[in-house]
Amino acid sequence: SVLAFNRENPYYRIELTDYDAAYYGFVGSSTLLGGRADTRFDTFERDLTAGDTYDVYLLGPEYENAASLEEKNLFADVRRLCERTDYITALESAWNTGEDDAVYRIPMSMTASALVTPSDTLTAGDTFTYDTLIALGESLPAGEALFSDDVAGELFSISQYDFIDRENKDCAFDSPEYVRFLDFCAELESAVMSGNANAYYDFTLGRSADALLIPDALVDSLKSGRLKFFKWNMNSLQSLTSFYFLNHAVGGNLTFCGYPTAAGDSLYVEADVTMALANGLSLGSGAYEYLEFLLSDTIQTAPALTDYALPVTRSALDKLLLVGYHYYSDD
Q: Between the CA of residue 74 and those of 1, 14, 66, 280, what are the distances in Å?
């Protein structure tokens, strides 16, 4: 993207300072500098303290001090950028971290996962809550299972947001609803770890972890009704195309129901890398133009991104869905 921007933009040029390259290791690893262990993050922060600031920041997930940089007013509020570029509103809201809903960092790509189910599993109009899921598990006939994939991690991660009040620094982890759900997750995790089927989990019904290969067992168990939910990872154009094939193979009645929450369904979204702009830059500056370029359909639909992730703008995601369906319908 830097090469393309520098080639196409007649007014600005992006130059990189790569803190990873200086250490020749995995992100977060250490090297010996001046007789002591020192990480690339220490060097980055020392440079900032010395006044070596930048216009654009790319921050990986291992860098844990991004919030402190926000508190020091190093980053600009980029809500206007999101509004100008058709940024996915729900994703933008998830990154509101400042006062007055300010957004200081945003991902440039994402991956997501959701539970998928045959359309007759959930009653029309029902919200997909914790109690709904547990009740389905408790009423399953012999030989049927809720899951064939390990979903305990996603279930647990999403549930925390319903029982943590960050604004008031409070939590409700001892509530009867949450305790019941934790017991459910523990029983599911126990079955996953042991490899033994129980009322909630049976891995023999087919897993969907590899979007390039749809197991026959998964198709058969969905068509027969023995499997109620499976996890679909949306992490590339290929994963979207494969879903069209799977849906067709089971009769076209699959629906994304997300993960259960107190209010209803929810996606599990991950973004490994976030971008930030330096505070004080004008909206028409080169840094803003670069981020707008990163959020353009040209970059958001490029194979370099869609081979491993999904775009974060509505227009690019719509185009990707059409491309995926085109491949499916041609074949």
A: 24, 19, 10, 9
